Every structure is written in structure tokens, then in C-alpha cells.
Amino acid sequence: MFGPKTYCAVVLGAQWGDEGKGKVVDVLAEEADVVVRYQGGANAGHTVDTGATEFILHQIPSGILHPRTICLIGNGVVLDPETLFTELDQLTGQGIDVSERLRVSDRAHLVLPYHKLLDAERDKSQKIGTTGRGIGPAYEDKTGRRGIRVGDLRHADRLGDMLAGQVERVNQLLGLLGSADRASLDEHRELLKRLAPRLLPLAADTGLLVYRALAAGKRVLLEGAQGALLDLDHGTYPYVTSSNTTAGGAVVGAGIGPKALDEVIGVVKAYTTRVGNGPLPTEAHGAEGDRLREAGGEYGATTGRPRRCGWFDATVVRYSVRVNGLTGLAVTKLDVLDEFAEVPVGVSYRLEGEPCEEMPADLDALGRVEPVYEMLPGWRKPTGGARRLADLPPQARAYLDRLEDLAGAPIRYVSVGTRRDQIIAV
Ligand code: GDP
Predict the structure, then answer these.
(1) What does the alpha-carbon distance between residue 421 and residue 295 come to, in Å, rounded to a whole number?
(2) Closest CA to 108 of 66, 74, 63
(3) Nearest protein Cα to ligand 1, atom 17
(4) Cα of 366 vs its chain's centroid, Å
(5) 296 CA: nearest ligand 1 atom
(6) CA distance 60 to 37
(7) Are strands 109-110 and 272-274 parallel, antiparallel or unpaired?
(8) 405 burial class (0-12, 13-18, 19+ CB within 10 angstroms)?
(9) Selected catalytic residue, list 26, 33, 46, 234
(10) How much is the pTM?
(11) CB atoms near residue 248 (< 10 Å)
């Protein structure tokens, strides 16, 4: 990935999330000096299988598993300090020392227990399918210009006033929503008093750290959470997350300029999944969907929720190539298709009998499109041992070639299993 012309690369999900970004980032982080998370919060769950141990990371960049890598949580992230410290303690317990290698933006907004109370209450009425971790309400506070940022912990007086105002507001809202729950000001004060001495030593101007690293010729990897179709602007609104998951969000959330990006890699599954509500045109219902779900272990890393499964949707990935400016694709979970005799690929849509080549902005239209499928022959051989394209069965290679043609971006990596070594660099 990195080389004389590539110092800064972003890896992001190019479908609806859960594409296996954690694994791809983990593999690429080996070559990186710095890994940055740029958006989202503890709702993202990256699973990294090192061969010896499986780690699920929600808040800390997956790069932390490499002993040399500096990991940054950027200003675009909303930070749940309790989750952060639980993960830090787990990593330390497993012999991974992190304290000198992790820094958190002092501009990052905090997710506090009152955000979770609001999230739980909202989900009852809005049915967006949130993870209940307070992410949406924390981003609402950020855009509402009343959020509490990591750097505010340095100012105890100001923090006390901000907390009092916020708890009062949240309790009014909870009352309006008909909830009997109330946030406790004392509990919030205690929590921050307890966490501040641990969090503040990690706080830094992370954008400056990235800038200096690039100026010194270091290699920087930006790690996305969720996927492009969950982007607040470009996703299937309102069934989206509360931040910009696409490449533009990467530079804003990491605190660097857009021209710093040399490569934008979109991670796509060899098929499609989605968690929660909203349209999923190529969804496979019934036995085929169940078969994909079982073969791919498609249950959420954070919530355990079964994921909705379907076939590769080229319209989605083409769109993602466009809105992200993808320079390459990493196709994951090819092995999950090993047993299928035939694999359908959604090449485009039809809407009310007319061809439809582009993603409609209108959710209702997207809910009504009919995918146009092409049936490709399966390979019915295990691919998990392949380390070069030439090791793959010809039908699997033909499948990848077709995906590349339809998507309009070159495939740079193919992942054929959960382990670090199960990857092909193209
Ligand atoms: P992320 O948030 O995009 O990293 O995705 P998740 O961690 O939620 O889900 C990806 C899951 O797929 C994890 O359990 C990974 O270990 C697994 N995974 C990643 N790549 C592959 C692959 O090539 N084959 C298989 N079978 N599993 C994979």
C-alpha cells in the first residue's frame, strides 16, 4: 500500500458497514506508522483475528495490535471514555501496552450516560435501528453547539456549568418523551472527576500530530467506521449514522487537508449485508439469505444482531466509488461464497420498468427498485488457502473480474478468511 508516492491512505467501508474493515486495517497497519479513527463512536465493532487471539475493538483503532503503531482518535469521533478504558484495560490484560501509543483529540466530543438515556428513548419512537450507545445524541449536541469536548475536562469550573445545563436539558427532554428515566448530575460529575485524570494525559491536538507525521515522511492510515451507505449525507437517509463516513469525512475528522490523501480504499464484501432498517435491494430472503448469514457468521460484533444478507450490489459499489473517489477496492469474505453453485450479482436496477443505473436519493424509490441479476458460476472449492490470485479457482477469478468491471475501481486486495495471513495483494 505505502510507497514512494503513498504516505496517507484511507480505508473505509464502501457498503453498509461490517465489510471487514478491521481486518484490512489490521493488515495494512503493519506498514503504517500512525493509524487514525476519524468518525463514529463506540457503535462500530471491528473484529481482528491475529491468529492467536480475537479482539473486538469499538473505540480504539485496530492498528493498536501492532506494537510500533501510534493510534489516534481524531476530532471527528465521539468518544465514550468508559468504553475506551474498558478496552485499554483488556488490551493491557492481554499484554498489549498502549498508553504511550494512543492519543485522543482534545476536540473530540464526549459521549456521556445521558446520551445513552436519550438514545434508548428515541429508538422506541424513531426506529432507525441505533445501537443505543448514545452516538446520535452526542453528534446532535455537537452540531447544536452544546457538546462537551475532551479538552473541556481541563477546566473544572466551566465543565461543572456545562454539565448542569446539559443534564437539566436532557431531563426536560426525557420528560417530554414520556420517559420516567432521569440523568443524575451528581453521577455525571463523579464520572468525569474519576475519568479526567486518566483521559487528559492522552489528550492532544491529533490533527497536528498527523500533519507532523506526514511532514516527516511517515505513513498514515485513516480508519473508517460503518460504511458509505450509512453516511449522513450520501447514505440511505434517514437510515444512516450521524457522521460522514465517506472520504470527505475522513479528512475533516482526522484534521488534515483533502490533498493529503494519496489512496482511498473501499472495503466491500463479495456479497452484501446490512444491519437495521432501510432498503436493501439485493437482499436474499429465506433459505439463501440464511445460508449466507451462517456461512459468513453475519451477526453484529457490537450487538449480536443478525445481519440482513444479500448479493453483491454493483449499483451501490459504483456509487461508493464515485462519492468517495475510491482508488481501489478490498474485497473481503470471498471464501463465504465457496459452496454456492451459482452466485447472483446485482448489476443494475429497474424502477417502474425503466433502467436505473444510479442510486436514487429517494428512499421510497430505492425501496421499489428491482435488481437486475447476472448469474455467475460458483467455484465450489475452498479459497481460504489462496495467497495469490493464481491460487484461486478460475470461476472465483472471473467473479472478481466481473465485480471490478461493474464497480469501476481496481481490486487491490482479496480477503479469503478471518486470519491476518488470509489475504491476497493484487
Ligand atoms: P468491520 O467493522 O468492517 O471490521 O466488520 P466486522 O468486524 O463487524 O465484521 C467482519 C467480520 O468478518 C469479522 O468477524 C471478521 O473476522 C470477518 N472477516 C473479515 N474478513 C473476512 C474474510 O475474508 N473471510 C471471512 N470468512 N471472514 C472475514
Answers:
(1) 20
(2) 74
(3) 418
(4) 23
(5) 26
(6) 8
(7) unpaired
(8) exposed
(9) 46
(10) 0.94
(11) 17
- The residue whose CA has the least distance to atom 28 of ligand 1 is 418
Distance 19 CA to ligand 1 centre (A): 6
**How many Å apart are CA 243 and CA 251, to the nearest integer?**
13
Distance CA 72, CA 37 (A): 6
420 compared with 209, residue with greater pLDDT: 209
Distance CA 350, CA 369 (A): 6
The three three-digit cell numbers of residue 363, written as one number: 428512499
Alpha helices in 182-326 (DSSP H): 185-199, 206-215, 247-254, 286-296, 314-324
Q: Which amino acid is present at 234? A: H
Sign of the CA dihedral running 413, 419, 421, 422: negative
pLDDT value at position 419?
92
Residue 201 has pLDDT above 90, yes or no: yes
pLDDT digits (tens, 9 = 90+) for 334-386: 999 999 999 999 999 999 999 999 999 999 999 999 999 999 999 999 999 99
Other beta carbons within 10 Å of 162: 16
For 95-123, what is each residue's pLDDT tens digit? 888 888 999 999 999 999 999 999 998 87
Cell numbers 475493538 correspond to: 57
| Cell numbers representing residue 417 in the block | 478468511
